[in-house]
Please model this.
Amino acid sequence: MSDADIERAVEAIHDGDLVVYPTETVYGLGADALNETAVKRVFDAKRRDRDKPVSLAVPDVDSALNYVHASDREETFMREFLPGPVTVLCEKTDEVPDVLTGGRSRVGVRVPDHEGALALLREAAPTPVTSTSANVSGRPSATKIADLDSEIRDAVAVILDGGETDGGTGSTVVNVETGEIHRRGANAEAVEAWLAKQT
Model:
């Protein structure tokens, strides 16, 4: 994955197109998370129900704070666990389109612990990028490019090949304010331990 590849992917994102990129868990499907039309294309490519939210990925916690109203507790948590395979649900700003969150007031924030993903996100900044697995809903997530569904390949402008990813169940999704884990994934036990200490 060269600098030129990343540059092409960033151009595609800024043009409203879709890209596939590696993370520390599985391959992700990226688009401009603030561009309503691009986000709709993510849902269409995945055949995902519109009421199921998609997260946004940014290169660091400071960038995330531009798009969410984070409490002190949420920010403390994010600085502890990000970058890493954890998605934090925070109150979104008005800039984040409702289509991304399925009409909900909270958006999932992700800072992947993967150099290729972070390179893409740094270059795309200040534009946040959608963070959802690059697969048709209901099918297995892709840990290598060869595993990508043909429908996903057809829908994207650029595929960034970062080799085989670590796989697993995807990120752990947590609402820090309520102390609720919505999806157990990587790092779930550490997240649980942190939440337990705070109560």
In short: The first helix runs from residue 3 to 14. Residues 111 and 126 are 14 Å apart (CA to CA).
